Amino acid sequence: MEKRIITAAITGAIHTPTMSPYLPITAKQIAEEAVRAHEAGAAVAHIHVRDEETGRPASDMNLFREVASYVKARCDMIICFTTGGRLGASVEERIKVVPTFEPELASCNFGSINFALFHVLERLKEVKYSWEKDYLAMTEDFIFPNTFKTLKDYSRYFKKYNTKAEMEIYDVGMINNASFMINRGFFEKPVYLQFVMGILGGIQPSIENLLFLYNNAKKLIGDFQWSVCAAGKHQTNMCTAALLMGGHVRVGLEDNLYLEKGVMAKSNAEQVAKIVRIARELGIEPASPQEARKILGLKGLDKVKF
Q1: Less Cβ crowding at N or C end of the chain, within 10 Å?
Q2: Domain containing 292 — which CATH number?
Q3: pTM for this predicted structure
Q4: Is 208 exposed, middle or buried (0-12, 13-18, 19+ CB in 10 A)?
């Protein structure tokens, strides 16, 4: 059967504790969620961390280490560290996970966008923590910066530590950015693209837009591995489309707090189990971590530093 990689994005830096009682906050909760997602069929865990007292997105290397070490001790799952970090973090703070942990895989955002969450405030009458409103509100005047200099600097770290870049593509222009950086030798083929759809400020989720992204990438880059993640209610539809098109998929509470309309997901594993069921209905099997390593050309779990 065909094998596809399923990634679980465990907690992210978008949703706040008020939005769901099931959002993992502590390092132990995040790590346990990753292991459960692995047991449900995910080969990769995409990891952010949060302040354990308030749930605010954080960049604490000790928390990242605690999560990664816990997961590694219990399974052979691939850990994909974020270099997006928390909104507003410096570039130096965001990239620090790569030299610190020398991971197999880490995200790399391929362009600057208006990363907007402020409109979510319209649905939040009260919040659990005071920081939540300010954090969401500031995105009305926030640019998520990923300049060519940033990409150039990042590429040195990815090369030095043999970490694969998961190239985050929020809009079609970022494919051109990726092509430019590949052609200049900063990133080497074969590359791994992730089409991120549904963020206010980026491309919106639709079959037409997914085909548009894919076809442009084929023209500009050629052969590549690719995955899709989509915000909110579009998660399942866009992931199913990706499976039909030959792509890999990402689910998880970073992207969507619901399992279906009106039903909150109680864990990342529930969303993983759902997309596994859909994949198998289509004759597709979830790749194991070892199979995913082969597909993506990763260096192996024995070469990380956590």
Answers
A1: N
A2: 3.20.20.70
A3: 0.97
A4: exposed
